[in-house]
Amino acid sequence: MFNNNTIQRFTGIETPFYYYDMEVLKQTLGACRDASLKYGFHVHYAMKANFNPQVLKAVQAYGFGADCVSGNEVIAAIENGFGKEKVVFAGVGKSDREINDALDADIFCFNVESVQELEIINELAAAKNKVAGVAIRINPNVDAHTHHFITTGLDENKFGINTWQLNDVADALRKLKNIKFLGIHFHIGSQITDMEVYRSLCIRINEIQDWFEDHGFSVKVLNTGGGLGVDYYNPDTNIPDFESYFKVFSKFLNVKPGQEVHFELGRALVAQSASLIARVLYVKNGQKKNFLVLDAGMTELMRPMLYQAYHSIENLSGQEPVGSGHLAEDNQSPFTINRSPVKYDVVGPICESTDCFRKDVDLPQSYRGDLIAIRTAGAYGEVMASNYNLRNKVQSVYSEPIA
Ligand SMILES: *Cc1c(COP(=O)(O)O)cnc(C)c1O
């Protein structure tokens, strides 16, 4: 991702910023599209992972639909060229305004998370003389074997409808005239790397779709959600293994004639395409600890602080061959800069003790002014940035000129 030209280019740009490698993004999107088309699967991009307009434009160009979790995302998806017949809308707390916006946009499907929500969608659709397509989000009680902060498919989680409530769902579906049952929806968590988890999900989906068919409902859509993980430890292994992922579903999901299989991938499509680029502001050498204080913190990338997430951290300046002309700001000669390995706690400038990207990071000895890359930051990065401490909005830089 970084060669001497990119690093040279960064030298003149104010940090911190997100750097998007559009080539990596396109390779990833192409690989996912090709692998899904092999099985005729439908993929919706989970916009919440990254709704940077340049990213949306690239994703949309590859023919993906959009998976939205707010009314504003529904509106943004359509404004950015996603076809309304490819927009789905999930979320455990859809407000009346958001439901109305989605009804006005004539989206494909609401992924509904409670019986009460079904009743409200029905009521609001009736007021507009419309019929809303719905899929029932079911909590399959499958353990995603991922970090408990990002597990969503267990009985204890707030998402979806539990299977013991399905009779109530069936009664409501029969009674409510302004909703049309399209199928069933699942999403069990994020950063899932164990394909066995998806096999378990398939088995549960087969049981649950049989339940619906046995109760007189025709299940057209099987939406398996998203959650495919990426390799945060090897940021240059750019492409997640979409082939193996889709293969599990084609093998274990009982797809009947006329059924459509839908997916909602977020992270896997965009994570590897971006890095957060920051500079070392200060180096604090303590008796027990050495700290690198960066000009980026939890206001630019919150994942380590929010989910205890791992990101690979590199010193881009430290990778330059000795004598390449890099001059650290303390004016040591480039020929004498010591780049021997040191362990640092890499921290941000925000007034919170949790504002630490990682402890005990092995880096070459680092200096004020060095460029630091925090890798695999394309998903749940820029979109979670805040202006806490009245920080500036984080900027974005692209590998290609933007159209
Ligand atoms: C967040 C989310 C996704 C995408 O999850 P990833 O882990 O980014 O693939 C898919 N579906 C729903 C309903 C979501 O909330």
TrEMBL record:
Alphabetized Pfam families for the sequence: Orn_Arg_deC_N (PF02784), Orn_DAP_Arg_deC (PF00278)
E.C. no: 4.1.1.20
Superkingdom, natural source: Bacteria
Domain Orn/DAP/Arg decarboxylase 2 C-terminal: start-end pairs: 18-378
Associated pathway: Amino-acid biosynthesis; L-lysine biosynthesis via DAP pathway; L-lysine from DL-2,6-diaminopimelate: step 1/1
Family of the protein in this entry: Belongs to the Orn/Lys/Arg decarboxylase class-II family.
Protein name per its UniProtKB record: Diaminopimelate decarboxylase
The species this protein was found in: Mucilaginibacter litoreus
